[in-house]
């Protein structure tokens, strides 16, 4: 990744707004910039728009939406902002948190009303750290559907998306971005001048050297993000003198079916399930959240665990396409008794049975275990049981370039780089410095809310 002077460069074409990356952040930014009246070009290294969005559950947290009102859910941007700050121990920039918490609901309603995305709010379970049901998703509850529908909206708007084109150079003049250079698979190159540039190429989760530097505890973990997330935005930003923050921040996940590599919804835990290691024993407070659970699982023998739940929870989880795929792939084990479940998973029967008894006794008493997990109000498990072997994974990084309330990239002295914007994982998000600060949905919050903000600002500038 290079940054070079534009003085002697001859550009092949010029566009008002260039966007690097065609995941949720880039596609939302493109729609917003187009609506602001600017011509837009989206550049994507893959054959089709996918990104980390396609690997997610596609759920976007948003407060005060019409879907919440229709379900009589009381929520507000202020309450959402408090939840974000509490989960991340007040580490994020409170101004950015407030900006995103206030912007994401209108962004979802705009995508629904203007571009036909049929969102609905999940009402049958709540993710850890959220004080209201505010997770919104599309019918399949999959990131693939989200990015596909956004790509279709971009196509219908007549916005060109140049695929199989990798940007490797930014050109600057007088401290501003003047253009980009991209390379095709056949080695041919194009230079594109622009009046505003949006970096929507995510973080550095696919760059093993950067992960080892900033998130060493997950250096050898399964990477469940997009391999194209090589830290391009971070490297360009550092070369431009941009400020960076919270580079150790990341989203992990302690529930990826092993060896199938399919995401298993955390409803398997929040609705009353638990995790055991190869000895049939619990090893942590699973209720803290799936992000911090990744490292806990990886510390267990073989770097795996087994999530134990029941048919009722499986019915809730089945609303997610990923869970249905896991069932189809044989990742979900079913049994009428704990003894049969232990045999199928090669776990010690006596230990697993005792663990279930301990958990159910805590639920009956409304007690708290030695790890700190409260079981008050947590539903009991009943046969037939279900279980899935899982591993911990790194999903995406949460630190990145520091941006202001208009998604402008800031220099180390706090001044904005005149026409450079960042959204999604390219920007420093609102999760703080570690996995525990990640509130479910923070990734797509930054992609959708900051993507729209960046697109609006870039479009107005161009």
TrEMBL record:
Gene3D superfamilies: FAD/NAD(P)-binding domain (3.50.50.60), Succinate dehydrogenase/fumarate reductase flavoprotein, catalytic domain (3.90.700.10). Its cofactor is FAD. Residues 17-437 form the FAD-dependent oxidoreductase 2 FAD-binding domain. GO terms for biological process: steroid metabolic process. The keyword Oxidoreductase applies. InterPro entries: FAD-dep_OxRdtase_2_FAD-bd, FAD-oxidoreductase_2, FAD/NAD-bd_sf, Succ_DH/fumarate_Rdtase_cat_sf. Keywords: FAD, Flavoprotein, Oxidoreductase. The keyword Transcription does not apply. GO terms for molecular function: oxidoreductase activity. Pfam families: FAD_binding_2. SUPFAM superfamilies: FAD/NAD(P)-binding domain, Succinate dehydrogenase/fumarate reductase flavoprotein, catalytic domain. This is FAD-dependent oxidoreductase. It comes from Methylobacterium nonmethylotrophicum.
